[in-house]
Amino acid sequence: MAFVVLNLKTYSESFQRGALALLHAAEAVRTDHELVLCPSVLDAGWVASERKKNKPLLFAQYADASGFGAFTGSVPLVGLKQMGFQGTLLNHSEKKLPHAQVEKTVKAASALGMKVVVCADSIDEAKIVAAFGPWAVAIEPPELIGSGVSVSNAQPELVKAGVEAIKAVDQKVLAFVGAGVSTRGDFQMSLKLGAQGVLLASAFAKAKDPEEWLDAFLSYSKP
Questions:
Q1: Which residue in the list 34, 125, 140, 212 is annotated as catalytic?
Q2: Is 157 known to be catalytic?
Q3: List 13, 50, 92, 212, catalytic entry
Q4: Per residue in 156-203, pLDDT tens?
């Protein structure tokens, strides 16, 4: 089994009713892989209330370590948990965070029994954030994000070295890869190189038929 993290970003196609359509597409596919859907924070409550099954897992695109209280503008982890979310993404290249903030949020999530996927833009950063003990670290070279050129094809040595680096820090941390992953072949190659999961966004969120696309993407890669 591998993990497939579907980041909906804030595309017009994945906003509001689009987010619900993508949720239903992820619910409809039959797979042994574990799907993780990451809607915009603006759609979080709506998506959580419309989810009909326990899968896919729901992760926010961002969260704060703060609890309930006088924290104007914050996205509290505890609130996300009450809404039905299982975790969050952090430190995506489109929303970089200070490492101290990442560590604090990872620890707060752990205390709540929630999962965190921390993105890293290099092997060096992957080592740093893996030491915080998140559920997973995802290596994503920024220059390939949204390019349609998968890191597993363009930089296979980075995938292998990144997985090794993460596991050298903490064997329990899952090693994911992202950036340009857009075909079933990209997925298969990522797994062959040692990754335990992938992150992708536009290929799914902008697909003409998201359910059909996701079914084809998943069916090629056996657990």
A1: 140
A2: no
A3: 92
A4: 778 889 999 999 999 999 999 987 777 888 888 889 899 999 999 999
pLDDT tens-digit readout, 144-159? 455 455 566 656 778 8
92 catalytic, yes or no?
yes
- pTM for the whole thing? 0.93
Q: How many domains does the chain have?
A: 1
Cα separation values, 130 from 36, 75, 77, Å: 20, 23, 20
Residues with Cβ within 8 Å of 48's Cβ and at least 6 positions away in sequence, in order, are 58, 83, 84, 85
| CATH number, domain containing residue 23 | 3.20.20.70
| Planar angle of CA 16, 113, 20, nearest 5 degrees | 15
Residue range(s) defining the domain that contains residue 144: 3-219
* Residue 17, both tokens: 């009713």
